[in-house]
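Data card: per-record layout.
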Amino acid sequence: MQAHLLQLCLSFTRVLGATLSIAAVVAPMPAPAQSSEPQWPRVNLSTCYEVDAAFFQRPANLAWGDMSGIALDAKGQIWLATRAEVPVQVFDANGQFVRAWGKGLLHTSHFIRIDHEGMIWLADVTQHVVFRCTPEGQVLLQIGTPNEPGCDETHLNLPTDMAISPSGDVFVADGYGNARIAHFDRQGKFVKQWGKVGTGPGEFSFPHSIVMDSQGRLYVADRNNNRIQVFDQNGQFLAEWRNLLVPWGLYVTQGKHGGDEIWACGSSPMAWRDEDVLLGCPPKDQLVMKFDTTGRVLQLWTFPKGEEGKEKPGELNWLHAVAVDAQGNLFVGDIMGRRAQKFVPR
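The structure for this 346-residue chain is written out next.
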């Protein structure tokens, strides 16, 4: 009996082994391993820009110099302030030349702004004045005493920019020579001033640009201090946005959802160098940033920095001014590049 059981076990073992051998032969081969690298979606979620190098149709006899200011009017016309013989130049929304004026009026133009009545405001650094003009160039108001620098109710010292309220009050960034914001009413009468040289809240080291949002808040490009400061119209300090950029120029637009958006152009933060008179001259790079009114960064775009006298289309050199139209196109002006350029979102 035991011999019979042993024989059955041996037979079963031989059959099982043969079955396993056949299964091993006919079993399908394992599928090749899938690639461990994910297939990244090639989708541009960031807003990118391309230069429209042929946009500005400038007459051959119309010179450009340091491009210090850019503004857009209600018609979509582009207003340029440039340090050339005819400093105020206007182009339509298609880049066609409209008109130019200001010969003999401005010595060293700086920023250009357009108020709620469509009038044109100009800062003249070396004459120490700001002007309010009609779109045709007739002077309506002058603030400051021509060719007399000072820091009182009737004098400015190398003013850089101005922000105008809907009621016509003007806030002057005064500027290269003074470290203050000077407030004047719509007739040009002095109201008040605030600011002094320093790094604390409400102090300035080169207040270079100023804009006002729809709620009446004022944003000041405190350039040497690597920050933007925010104030109410009484000069009360509200906030500061530090260590984000060296701000040169500011601009305000209305966002897609109705809120204000603050645009700033300049360079990334820098430390003072032994040779610097003003921080970031020359800048190490060129950029534009967009903020909401709380200082949250919404967008950042950098541009290639050109070599003086050899700048290619799309390169910038000492980016000074930015303006943005309703389609999101950027209009920028630089000092060393001595030109205005249009950049179109991709």
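Known properties of this structure: The helical segments are 2-26. Residues 2-26 form the longest helix (25 residues).

See the next section for split statistics.
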